[in-house]
């Protein structure tokens, strides 16, 4: 699995979604805007939790959301920092390290273990799930959802693969 390409895809998708969220009329569709904020807030908290597990550091969070939502620009900055970190991480990791098991404690205090590869897949999959939720809010707020499928990403990045 080419995790570098997958994290570049996630970065591309998230950036496009932040641009779309900026188009929501916050007077008319405040609930949809706040829902998008909440989804990205949850996404970054989960990414930061798993990053701390991969770094064998103390978790920064005690829950997977917050009572007060950070501003969208703060969330965008944190997500972008996460992109940079994960892209750097997957660039340097050796394929034989992907099977290494990480033991950790979930937010609910139960223990768990995942391989590094499973953690990386979870981050990619988790982001996709929540971007889909945000797409629904965009639709409700009458904002066009940007095409963000992996195939669109690949063909934008490698247009020669679309020939035919």
UniProtKB/TrEMBL annotation:
Keywords: Metal-binding. A divalent metal cation binds at residues 42, 126, 130. The keyword Lipid biosynthesis does not apply. The keyword Metal-binding applies. InterPro entries: DinB, DinB/YfiT-like. GO terms for molecular function: metal ion binding. Belongs to the DinB family. This is DinB family protein. It comes from Acinetobacter nematophilus.
């Amino acid at each position: 699995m080419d995790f570098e390409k997958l994290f570049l895809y996630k970065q591309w998708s998230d950036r496009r979604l932040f641009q779309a969220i900026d188009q929501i009329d916050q007077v008319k569709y405040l609930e949809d805007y706040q829902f998008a904020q909440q989804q990205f807030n949850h996404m970054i908290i989960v990414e930061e939790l798993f990053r701390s597990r991969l770094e064998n550091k103390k978790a920064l969070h005690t829950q997977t959301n917050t009572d007060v939502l950070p501003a969208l620009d703060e969330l965008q900055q944190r997500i972008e920092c996460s992109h940079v970190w994960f892209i750097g991480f997957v660039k340097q990791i050796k394929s034989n390290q992907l099977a290494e098991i990480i033991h950790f404690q979930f937010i609910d205090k139960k223990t768990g273990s995942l391989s590094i590869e499973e953690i990386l897949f979870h981050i990619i999959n988790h982001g996709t799930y929540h971007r889909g939720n945000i797409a629904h809010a965009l639709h409700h707020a009458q904002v066009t959802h940007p095409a963000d499928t992996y195939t669109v990403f690949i063909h934008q990045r490698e247009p020669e693969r679309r020939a035919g």
